């Protein structure tokens, strides 16, 4: 169903294991601001993205051919002029992620919902990709029909 996501994801995992997984000084890590889960549930393919801190109006989902693009903007908190930020570790800005979907998905009927910081996409499996039973004819049954 899902053909490919981020080609550098495995490289990032290996680097985090080799150099440490934290954001402490002296370690290298590239945090993924949009982690996801993807699975098949019955006749649907489901993808869930973690987007904490993003509002529903700051999320865009686009499909072009078999490429699904999710873009989200995490905006800075609105604070007064007399506020001085002491710690700012949460990533801000525009984040995007692309998924290359197989031809077996019906992207025309994609459904999206956003609740509690999780964007959930439900993509139906195309009718042509669903399992179906094939009837088998034999020479014996054809002869019986001719003689009848």
From TrEMBL:
<dbReference type="InterPro" id="IPR031107">
    <property type="entry name" value="Small_HSP"/>
</dbReference>
<protein>
    <submittedName>
        <fullName>HSP20 family protein</fullName>
    </submittedName>
</protein>
<feature type="domain" description="SHSP">
    <location>
        <begin position="27"/>
        <end position="139"/>
    </location>
</feature>
<dbReference type="Pfam" id="PF00011">
    <property type="entry name" value="HSP20"/>
</dbReference>
<dbReference type="InterPro" id="IPR002068">
    <property type="entry name" value="A-crystallin/Hsp20_dom"/>
</dbReference>
<comment type="similarity">
    <text>Belongs to the small heat shock protein (HSP20) family.</text>
</comment>
<dbReference type="InterPro" id="IPR008978">
    <property type="entry name" value="HSP20-like_chaperone"/>
</dbReference>
């Amino acid at each position: 169903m899902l053909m490919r996501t981020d080609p550098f994801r495995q490289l990032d995992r290996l680097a985090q294991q080799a150099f440490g997984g934290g954001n402490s000084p002296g370690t290298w890590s590239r945090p993924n601001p949009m982690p996801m889960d993807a699975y098949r549930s019955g006749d649907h393919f489901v993808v869930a993205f973690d987007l904490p801190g993003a509002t529903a109006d700051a999320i865009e989902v686009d499909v072009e051919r078999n490429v699904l693009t999710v873009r989200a903007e995490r905006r800075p908190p609105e604070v007064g002029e007399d506020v001085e930020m002491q710690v700012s570790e949460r990533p801000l800005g525009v984040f995007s992620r692309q998924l290359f979907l197989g031809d077996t998905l019906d992207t025309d009927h994609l459904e999206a919902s956003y609740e509690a910081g999780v964007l959930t996409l439900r993509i139906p499996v195309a009718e042509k990709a669903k399992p179906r039973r094939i009837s088998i004819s034999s020479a014996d049954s054809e002869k019986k029909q001719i003689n009848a």
